[in-house]
Amino acid sequence: MTFGHKPAIGYVINTYPRPSHSFIRREILALEAAGWTIHRFAMRGNAAELVDPADQSEHAQTEHVLESGAIRLGQDFMRAALRAPAAARSALRDARRGGVRHLAYLAEGARVANRARALGISHLHAHFGTNSTDVARHAARLAGIGYSFTAHGPEEFDAPRALRLGDKLAGARFAVAISHYGRSQLCRWVDHRHWDRIHVVHCGIEPARFPDPPPLPVARPLRLAAIGRFSEQKGFLALLPALAAARRNADIRLTLVGDGELRPEIEALIAAHALGDAVTLTGWLDEAGVRGQLAASHALVLPSFAEGLPMVVMEAMAQGRPVLATAIAGVPELVRPGETGWLVPAGDEAGLGEAMVALAATPVEVMAGMGLNGRARVLAHHDVAAEAEKLGALFAAACRGQAA
């Protein structure tokens, strides 16, 4: 099954779509606009979490593997084993090394392999070097095709040995990192002779969705937006005490966009620091809602402890907003101190608070200039169509049986 003479590609993702994974949707749509046929495989979906119509549409187009049920997955493995017994024995030995969970990944991979054969898919690409890549790796072996994956971080870099990241890299036709920092981390876990298989392809934005940026609010107080899943890696539990300290010296308001498992702790900190009149929790918003919150803010604050290359920073910069962020992972590849924003050490609550006070004292016209610098930078380096073209070239080479 091809379109415009380009091979069909199967995308493999653990849970898809999710509100925080809009970058995958944009990448898929950009590839499809360039003539690629993309079939979406996810182990599971979470329709109840989706508020954006674009995510709801993706959910309808995605084949959710676990909906087949355990019996059907077992039958899929038997069918794949009958078709390719040597590959099945090799995959089974490999899966047993990882324990029961990896036997489940093998069954899921068998389902993907059988569907890949039926759909004429020539190559599998996983997002995240976690269990998604385990499934793609098993499926590729059983289907007799190649696989690749995009590593985002921080999960892959937190437990590279447990995830057998080196094995995944060695077996892949190629691998993608979303930043140069991420590529450096992948290089740590594979022999130097495989480094040329590891490429940087940035996550991207759609420039057409970001016309001339809205003007920054003229009136004070300083309005900040923070956007992301309420999880330990995002650093919101450090942001709130820092905000409380900063408000002793400056009038600052914060809007938190997102939700997640740490919401009770976040609400407790808001109460403990008497921030009820200063912090607004919106829950998850669709893309238009996120853009609206950024437009109403002077700057984005990203207090993360661990990241890949945050899409929200790109979106804020595209809207002409300066960024206050922690200097981790690929973030310094986007945020340039004094040019597009401010950087502080991760976990430094005092430094974060001081930076917010400094931001509050910065004239609006200076902030606007930094925002325009950031906009120019992100439009030049993170156009999703250009990044999808890079990825498409890698797919084309992989389907010819060679690493690009």
Automatic annotation (TrEMBL):
Domain of life: Bacteria
GO MF terms held by the record: glycosyltransferase activity
Record keywords, A-Z: Transferase
Residue ranges that the Swiss-Prot or TrEMBL entry lists as coiled coil: none
Pfam families: Glyco_trans_1_4
Name of the protein in its database record: Glycosyltransferase
Organism: Paracoccus lichenicola
